[in-house]
Amino acid sequence: MGKEITLAVIIVGDDSASRVYVDGKKRDCAEIGIKSEEHALSADTTEQELLALIDSLNARSDVDGILVQLPLPKHINAQNVIMRIDHQKDVDAFHPINVGKIMVGNFSFLPCTPAGVMELIKESGVSIEGKECVVVGRSNIVGKPQAMLLLHENGTVTICHSRTKNLADVCRRADILVVAVGKSRFITADMVKDGAVVIDVGMNREDGKLCGDVDFESVKEKAFAITPVPGGVGPMTRAILMRNTVTAAKLR
Ligand code: NDP
To answer: What distance, in Å, lies between the first and last C-alpha atoms of the chain?
Structure first.
């Protein structure tokens, strides 16, 4: 019999969206035979208590992956927490060692959402090499690593953010447009080139309904391929987390 693979998931507080994500990850683990171990801590847990838990999970030989569900309560410094996770168990690939490895193109894990986006682009059949790739958003968990992965595949990459001038013009240049802004229907059809591949990372709640950053109905008429929300990047992100957990187990 092969080795059992274990993912430890830490959730602090009672954020309802975080609870949904953690439950989804536990379901995914169960579906593919990974053992998940939930550590649910109260919202008043101190940073020291959380770091001590991470130390104990780092030390356990039966734990392959450690994931701390973000966001954390305001009194806890998320960067300190991420830094404390053994980088070989860092299945989110947020630890600076893993971030640095992505920069130099020699990585063990890729961050789940950008890696999922890369799979979706590959699935569209469109080659990235030499293409104009525009990433809207520059967060550490999506935009920046996304740009780096597209660059590794020889795309010509532009990163946009809230200070970008003439955003619509820049977006219209994109053969591949990845949007991670966090604003419902932010990208409209007039901002999209005919035949573009459009990847919508956004997950926004509107009247209780999940919707993306792209105005799907109008943009789908122009795009060669477009991801829906829900049902696009989200499930791919979850799948990559499972892949990273298996990788972590293999690495050890
Ligand atoms: P952040 O809030 O960390 O980053 C948002 C980015 O959008 C920032 O770089 C910001 O620019 C930029 N931005 C904001 N307003 C504008 C504007 N008017 N024009 C251009 N750029 C703008 O968000 P995340 O990266 O964490 O997430 C983005 C979205 O993706 C959210 O909806 C989130 O829920 C979703 N998400 C989905 C995941 C999935 O699995 N599907 C996983 C992770 C996130 P600046 O830096 O200048 O402030």
So the answer is: 17
For the cut 90, the answer to whether the pLDDT of residue 164 exceeds it is yes
CA angle, 25 then 31 then 35, to 5°: 65
Asked if residue 142 has its Cβ within 6 Å of ligand 1, the reply is yes
CA of 211 relative to ligand 1 center, distance in Å: 14
Task: Yes or no: say if 101 and 108 are a contact pair by the CB < 8 Å rule.
Answer: yes
Residues 116-124, mean pLDDT to the nearest whole number: 97
Q: How far is the CA of 80 from the centre of ligand 1 (A)?
A: 22
181 lines ligand 1 (CB under 6 A): yes
pLDDT of residue 252: 81
Give the closest residue to 136 by CA, choosing from 196, 99, 179: 179
Whole-angstrom distance, CA of residue 6 vs CA of residue 71: 23
Mean pLDDT over residues 177-206, rounded?
Answer: 97
From the list 129, 70, 140, the residue with the least C-alpha distance to 102 is 140
What pLDDT does 227 receive? 98
Q: Is 13 in the pocket of ligand 1 (CB under 6 A)?
A: no
